[in-house]
Amino acid sequence: MKCVVTGCAGFIGSHLTERLLNDGHSVVGVDCFTDYYPRAIKESNAAGFRDHPQFEFHEHDLATGHLDAVVDGAEYIFHLAAMPGLTRSWIDFDVYARCNLTATHRLLESLKGLKSLKKFVYASTSSVYGKYASGDENLPTRPSSPYGITKLAGEQLARVYLDEFDVPTVVLRFFSVYGPRQRPEMGYHLFIKWILAGTPIKLTGDGLQVRGNTYIGDCVEATLQTGLKAMPGETFNLGGGEITTIIDAIRTIERLAGKPAKIERHPSRPGDQLATAADVTKLWRHLGWKPTTGLEAGLAKQIDWQRGLVS
Ligand SMILES: NC(=O)c1ccc[n+]([C@@H]2O[C@H](COP(=O)([O-])OP(=O)(O)OC[C@H]3O[C@@H](n4cnc5c(N)ncnc54)[C@H](O)[C@@H]3O)[C@@H](O)[C@H]2O)c1
User: pTM, whole model, 2 decimals?
Assistant: First the structure.
């Protein structure tokens, strides 16, 4: 099958692209290497498939580039490109509006009347629910950050293009994805880095925030199954099925890394989520998908990967 992955050099996009290529599909990848984190990291994420014969790369900003050549003949489009992260969205709102909304709009415009298209998977986030994102897809959407607002608006835009122009949209709301290549500013990446280096962990809030993290391999499998099997118009929560508090996750990392954490307390930041735990019953009922990697096994893989980064 012919797939498009936007954000193909990012954390999740690079794993998805690799999986699609390994399964024998062809992939057109788009990325513009935003400066959210260094380009060199994204280049290294994509290094394993950049020269794959079934892979074609377009260095395009979706908010401005010409997209007809990118989507031509596409059967499955996985739209992962976005400005992620809550904190920066308070200060760089224009960039979030451009990458998460204008880019999504331009992409959807290019899909009107695209006969080959079987599924458009929009990567959304638990941040559309806001501070308490624990439960199933019927939780009220009440974002607590500009990031969550732009991602929710992107969902709504994709729904309108389904209703009005038959773009076969499915929305997947990711819950804190982790594992090798996790973005360098994300919590587990930082905790592991600081514990391995013996520097203090900057812990925001009381550490009792609840997290239902998703291992990257589970995230990729569910995304693929959604592309293949989900009904257009559906929205799914995608999480790891196991719940922990942040402080317990730090204790697990300490144990796996064999080093103690020094904890430095900081106040919580505006918009911080207090609980994120996906009920994934709907993904199981509709697609027969369940997460298979527990937190301890997933963190062990991420620690191994991060040990390689420092050596
Ligand atoms: N990582 C998580 O835990 C998580 C949780 C919830 C939702 N998500 C969503 O999953 C998707 C992927 O997240 P990620 O963690 O891999 O982030 P990432 O930053 O690693 O990847 C996103 C990629 O998109 C690219 N990009 C951004 N704007 C673009 C534009 N206008 N044109 C072309 N490329 C552009 C970036 O350069 C980057 O490589 C995002 O949509 C994000 O909102 C991620």
Answer: 0.97
